[in-house]
């Protein structure tokens, strides 16, 4: 039950911050918050995918309910491909418009998002910093107990 309350408090704080810090329509604010939610999900796979590959390599005898065709090589290829696409998707989600700029394609950030690039990046990178900070604090707090 504590997790449910904590997630509700965190969601409320981020919603209040979004409506307070982001000047724009409700639709624009929703788009920014949704992008942040998707980005945090994508970024989690940057840890999950290599972990699955490492566990398959270091603990091959553990029974798992799934197998990738091709054994360890097949899993390595699948992991590398998916990891690459997830990293690419994460970059595009955190820094929208960067690819367009790289390829010389016009991109009006405020027209696409309804907020300025600075507002978007401060809110997105600030949220990611909080998520990483909480993860590091949790790791440091639990580390002495895990030994």
UniProtKB/TrEMBL annotation:
It comes from Trebonia kvetii. The lineage of its organism: Bacteria, Bacillati, Actinomycetota, Actinomycetes, Streptosporangiales. The chain crosses the membrane at residues 28-53, 73-99, 119-141. This is Amino acid permease. Keywords: Membrane, Transmembrane, Transmembrane helix.
């Amino acid at each position: 039950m504590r997790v449910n309350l904590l997630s509700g408090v965190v969601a409320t704080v981020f919603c209040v911050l979004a409506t307070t810090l982001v000047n724009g329509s409700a639709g624009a604010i929703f788009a920014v918050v949704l992008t942040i939610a998707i980005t945090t999900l994508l970024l989690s796979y940057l840890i999950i995918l290599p972990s699955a590959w490492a566990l398959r390599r270091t603990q091959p005898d553990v029974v798992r309910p799934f197998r990738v065709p091709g054994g360890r090589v097949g899993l390595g290829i699948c992991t590398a491909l998916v990891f690459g696409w997830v990293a690419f998707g994460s970059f595009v989600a955190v820094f929208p418009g960067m690819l367009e700029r790289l390829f010389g394609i016009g991109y009006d950030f405020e027209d696409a998002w309804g907020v300025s690039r600075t507002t978007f990046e401060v809110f997105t990178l600030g949220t990611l910093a909080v998520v990483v900070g909480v993860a590091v604090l949790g790791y440091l707090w639990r580390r002495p107990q895990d030994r």
